Hints:
3-stranded antiparallel sheet, alpha/beta
Amino acid sequence: xxxxxxxxxxxxxxxxxxxxxxxxxxxxxxxxxxxxxxxxxxxxxxxxxxxxxxxxxxxxxxxxxxxxxxxxxxxxxxxxxxxxxxxxxxxxxxxxxxxxxxxxxxxxxxxxxxxxxxxxxxxxxxxxxxxxxxxxxxxxxxxxxxxxxxxxxxxxxxxxxxxxxxxxxxxxxxxxxxxxxxxxxxxxxxxxxxxxxxxxxxxxxxxxxxxxxxxxxxxxxxxxxxxxxxxxxxxxxxxxxxxxxxxxxxxxxxxxxxxxxxxxxxxxxxxxxxxxxxx
Length: 279
């Protein structure tokens, strides 16, 4: 595996892959890698792609009161994990590489970016889309892989790419949604999980229990009531709602809806989602 910390190093690796006729698969991450990230690598490997994984803790998607300083940074461990997994290039740039003084286009998430996570974390999705767009411009992938736990993020990235391709601003990128990976009790894997005290892990697992309970009901009121009843009392809920999976608009219908949840377990904020009737 090649470690590229400069854009020129990334470009050199991509040029070799292009010469060899390889298609590029890209997995953007903020590091502190876990089995969920490795499942994305496996998806890319199954397609025979030249795999680039980025590790960059993006300051622009952390707002006031967010945990930028506390976000885990484990580049050395991540590099070993990715090398063992057979990744071709680890792109681990500095902020100066990603955000030079000029030339980076700001992307705005619009109305969808102001809902749910955007309400709780204003500007978060603008920063996320800006860095994803920048990384796409640098890596020029054929395929990009994202986990489904961050469903609103996935929808925004997909919409951004679709609009850019339609406008002639970008070559097509296939955005692949990958299944959420969970621990043995259903907790969605997240880099933030390592900050949850061991005695609060059972409480964290009640988020998924809540989604499962709610997904079995036939009316919205019953869904929300059943889900809420499963939550550990220490969970400080930010939202629990049913949304249209194609628009993220709040819906009163149950069939085919996505139940989304976000809450605090101690000092760690977790999100999750589930298609009603699915797992």
